[in-house]
Write a structure and sequence with these properties.
The structure is a single chain. This protein is mainly α and 21 residues long. Helices cover 90% and strands 0% of the residues. The protein is built from one helix and no strands. The longest helix is centred in the middle third of the chain and has 19 residues. The N and C termini lie far apart (31 Å).
């Protein structure tokens, strides 16, 4: 489950970075 959670965080981080740009 840890891997799945990590994936979610990664996606969120990616979205945040895109929004920042």
């Amino acid at each position: 489950d840890s891997c799945k959670h990590d994936g979610l965080i990664w996606q969120e981080k990616q979205e945040h970075q895109h929004d920042n740009r």
